[in-house]
């Protein structure tokens, strides 16, 4: 189908607003599906995943579509749970239009605000869809006021509920109409036409002359401009449940939602980092192919499926394409159009199309696929994704599963840009970070159900460290005589504290061959063993200089192992006299919250040995607070911030420096430690 007839819509908005139900209702109303499925029965096109059916929520973006009145409408249903907002935000680069679905009972909610802002930032055309107008608690008139209050007077109704939400009356295509539940059709019509003509001076002049007689067809291009400029955000009322307003919504989308050429152009950049500059791609089927992967699906049976939006050119079966700057091309063996979980082979996909390519290993989220090296360094400007901050240390339940777990995690991180894995070698642990408890639970369940790997989890350890506070010396003689050859090595060394963050230094000042050179590395080896296992509480040692001062050897009994042991013991004894302390990580926290929680957040930090170091106001009545606090005091911060802000807060942490723990804590940690005795000969 020609690109001039395509319309790409992302259904976004807070959980429970009815996005999946609305996709189902639109597919049904347009004749794309014969029976209308339901969330409760788990029979919708978009929530096909067993986990989605069990939880009664969408967990990932799903593509479906229908044809109506000569137009191809591609819908991307997205999850509205706050933990999954990253999976919603990332599809915005694939569409011209964001259809923000709002619950007629609750009005705008947390995710509504987030996606409205993200869609505006991307320059998308926005439609607000107030759904569930049939519900007993629905209050569509009040919700319209709240939307205008939150998002501006550009939010104007295209239609209005009537008969208490039993039906909907158009107020854009018709100038007059029957009584509605609030406002008159004539007044609503005039408001929206007034708003549209403001973007076009000639039209404005004609309108002032002809008044209400202006031909609506003449308004089309001004309407599209108003949408593109964010000067108009049409509001539609609907019930996915009863079908009230569905025909009107379908009609409005088909007649008014922009084609790829009518929307703002996608924000492609050429080059890396700061040197990148904007480039134009056009929805022209004859130009080079430029397509962007906005979703990766990994299925243990089907393999990897990359879902892409074609922005320029035409992808054809058999064609050679490149992924990013790869030299080697891959051949398009199969090209699919998606309808939920169903795939249908298509011969080609032109600009504006959303399609899928299977079994290409190099495809990854955010990859740009193209057919000429001219576009090697093209990227789509990324949407900032919320940071994943809730960590769980994981290990396989079965020994020997380590490699499988690593491979599966790698696949899941490929699918989900809001998932992050960190290796903490000092703590011997792998930590999986996600957006919240539900996110991590869903990911862990998926690992077990889809990939058959079971994991044990626990909170991540605090990366404590050990160091010393003063200089000390020690001498250790290792001597062993058991029957045959003996062992002999004597080491005298000095330990000195170094500046925080300096790490470890090893100096050889042995004079006159008291210890032969060949044995110096053995001493260092002994010292390094202690560095990793700690001295007083089992934490890695840092910020120390070890100087070997003197020693003795024996011409027959001195061998490597003797000096490893002597080095070890001498170091341990010197540390014991050098005022050893345990260090704890102090992190910089960057906390973003609504302005009215600022005081609570600062007070809470103060009770956790933290302090605010600065703050900055942000648009939308939000504030970013910079603070320093011990990491150990923030292990439950995710949950605390959520309850203090009603889920409106977010934060990032990064290591600032290490400081000595309080003496009481040092005592607890030291007592809890059972020293590991290395085997000695
Ligand atoms: N009364 C009424 N209920 C609706 C309507 N639309 C959806 N629902 C119900 O609301 C619940 C949530 O609907 P969904 O379609 O799953 O909502 P969603 O926005 O996709 O939610 P997430 O996938 O969690 O983001 C389901 O029980 C639906 O049956 C409606 O128009 N009227
Ligand atoms: Mg849903």
Could you explain how this protein is built, in words?
The structure is a single chain. The chain is an alpha+beta fold. The chain has 5 domains: 3-186 and 232-256, P-loop containing nucleotide triphosphate hydrolases (Rossmann fold, 3-Layer(aba) Sandwich), CATH 3.40.50; 268-380, Elongation Factor Tu (Ef-tu), domain 3; 390-458, 2-Layer Sandwich (Alpha-Beta Plaits), CATH 3.30.70; 466-579, Ribosomal Protein S5, domain 2 (2-Layer Sandwich), CATH 3.30.230.10; 583-666, Alpha-Beta Plaits (2-Layer Sandwich), CATH 3.30.70.240. 26% of the residues lie in helices and 31% in strands. It has 16 helices and 35 strands. The chain has an 8-stranded antiparallel β-sheet with strand order 16-15-21-12-13-20-17-18, with helices on one face. A 7-stranded mixed β-sheet has the order 2-3-1-4-5-9-6, with helices on both faces. Strands 27, 32, 33, 34 and 35 form a 5-stranded antiparallel β-sheet that branches. A hairpin with a 6-residue loop joins strand 10 and strand 11 (277-279). Helix 12 packs across helix 13 (560-576). The longest helix is centred in the last third of the chain and has 17 residues, at 560-576. The N and C termini lie far apart (79 Å). The mean pLDDT is 91. Magnesium ion is lined by residues 19-20, 47, 58, 77.
């Amino acid at each position: 189908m020609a690109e001039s007839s395509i319309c790409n819509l992302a259904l976004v908005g807070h959980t429970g607003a009815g996005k999946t139900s609305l996709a189902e209702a639109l597919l049904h109303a347009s004749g794309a599906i014969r029976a209308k499925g339901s969330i409760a029965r788990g029979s919708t096109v978009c929530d096909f995943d067993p986990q989605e059916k069990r939880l009664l929520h969408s967990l990932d973006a799903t593509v479906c579509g229908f044809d109506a009145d000569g137009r191809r409408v591609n819908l991307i249903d997205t999850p509205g749970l706050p933990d999954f907002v990253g999976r919603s935000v990332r599809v915005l680069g694939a569409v011209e239009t964001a259809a923000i679905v709002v619950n007629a009972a609750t009005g705008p909610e947390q995710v509504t605000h987030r996606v409205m802002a993200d869609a505006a930032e991307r320059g998308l055309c926005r439609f607000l869809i107030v759904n569930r107008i049939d519900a007993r608690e629905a209050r569509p008139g009040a919700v319209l006021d709240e939307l205008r209050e939150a998002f501006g007077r550009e939010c104007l109704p295209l239609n209005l509920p009537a008969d208490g939400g039993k039906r909907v009356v158009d107020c854009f295509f018709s100038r007059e109409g029957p009584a509605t539940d609030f406002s008159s059709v004539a007044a609503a019509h005039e408001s929206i036409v007034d708003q549209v003509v403001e973007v076009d001076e000639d039209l404005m002049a004609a309108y002032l002359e002809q008044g209400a007689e202006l031909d609506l067809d003449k308004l089309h291009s001004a309407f599209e401009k108003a949408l593109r400029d964010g000067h108009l955000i049409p509001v539609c009322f609907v019930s996915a449940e009863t079908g009230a307003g569905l025909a009107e919504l379908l009609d409005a989308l088909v007649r008014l939602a922009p084609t790829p050429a009518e929307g703002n152009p996608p924000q492609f950049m050429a080059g890396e980092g700061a040197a990148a500059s904007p480039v134009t791609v056009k929805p022209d089927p004859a130009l080079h192919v430029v397509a962007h992967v906005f979703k990766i699906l990994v299925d243990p049976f089907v393999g990897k499926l990359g879902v892409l939006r074609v922005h320029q050119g035409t992808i054809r079966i058999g064609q050679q394409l490149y992924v990013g700057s790869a030299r080697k091309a891959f051949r398009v063996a199969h090209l699919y159009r998606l309808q939920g979980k169903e795939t249908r082979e298509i011969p080609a996909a032109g600009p504006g199309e959303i399609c899928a390519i299977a079994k290409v290993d190099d495809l990854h989220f955010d990859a740009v696929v193209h057919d000429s090296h001219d576009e090697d360094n093209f990227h789509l400007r990324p949407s900032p994704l919320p940071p994943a901050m809730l960590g769980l240390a994981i290990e396989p339940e079965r020994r020997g599963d380590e490699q499988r777990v690593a491979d599966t995690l790698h696949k899941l991180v490929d699918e989900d840009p809001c998932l992050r894995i960190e290796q903490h070698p000092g703590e011997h642990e792998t930590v999986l970070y996600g957006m919240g408890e539900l996110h991590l639970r869903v990911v862990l369940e998926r690992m077990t159900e889809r990939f058959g790997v079971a994991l044990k989890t626990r909170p991540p350890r605090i990366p404590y460290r050990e160091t010393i506070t003063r200089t000390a010396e020690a001498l250790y003689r290792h001597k062993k005589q058991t029957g045959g050859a003996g062992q002999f090595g004597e080491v005298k060394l000095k330990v000195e504290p170094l500046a925080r963050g300096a790490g470890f230094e090893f100096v050889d000042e042995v004079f006159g061959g008291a210890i032969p050179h060949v044995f110096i590395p053995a001493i260092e080896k002994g010292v390094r063993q202690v560095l990793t296992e700690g001295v007083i509480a089992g934490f890695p040692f840092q910020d120390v200089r070890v100087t070997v001062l003197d020693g003795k050897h024996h011409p027959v009994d001195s061998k490597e192992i003797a000096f490893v042991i002597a080095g070890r013991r001498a170091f341990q004894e010197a540390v014991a006299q050098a005022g050893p302390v345990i260090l704890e990580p102090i992190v910089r926290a960057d906390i973003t919250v609504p302005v009215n929680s600022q005081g609570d957040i600062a007070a809470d930090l103060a009770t956790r040995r933290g302090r605010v170091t600065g703050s900055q106001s942000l648009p939308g009545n939000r504030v970013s607070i910079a603070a320093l606090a011990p990491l150990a005091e923030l292990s439950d911060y995710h949950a605390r911030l959520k309850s203090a802000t009603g889920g409106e807060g977010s934060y990032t942490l990064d290591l600032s420096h290490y400081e000595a723990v309080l003496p009481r804590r040092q005592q607890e940690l030291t007592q809890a430690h059972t020293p590991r005795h290395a085997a000695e000969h």
